[in-house]
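Milestone M4 deliverable, item 7.
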Amino acid sequence: MAKVKTIKQKELQEKLKEKETELKKLKEELKKTREKLLRSYADYQNYQKRIEKETREKIEKAKENLLLQILDLYENLNLAYKDKSPKKAIGVMIKNIEKLMEKEKIKSIETIGKKFDHNLHHAISVIEKNDIEDGIIIDEIKKGYLIEDRILRPSIVVVAKNTKK
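Output delivered:
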């Protein structure tokens, strides 16, 4: 019986050693995984900071470009103001602004005679007109613009309402 006890004790001790070795391995794996996680988290935070910095820099650069274009327009306005023939100078300024708009892919929205589109137009008035189809724009109060295919500013318009139907 003592022999059985010692065999069982040896088996239990071996199992205990196995479990301790397994536990040691698991603790080591956990430590490595925790370190990887902390490194990944630090990398992510650095990535986030870099993206935020790059975004701020892009916004600042775009702002600088816009301000430079405004300064050019301002200088042209000053020249036109001092010019003896302001009409000619203003014409040159308008051409410069049109070039700038073209460069920035800004296009005006066509309105007069077109069907009202709530995506492009903002109606401030409806006028009864018997000789014009319902929903046709008859007047433009303020021009609207697209930048590429997005609305920069909707056109402010007056729309016809046909009372004869």
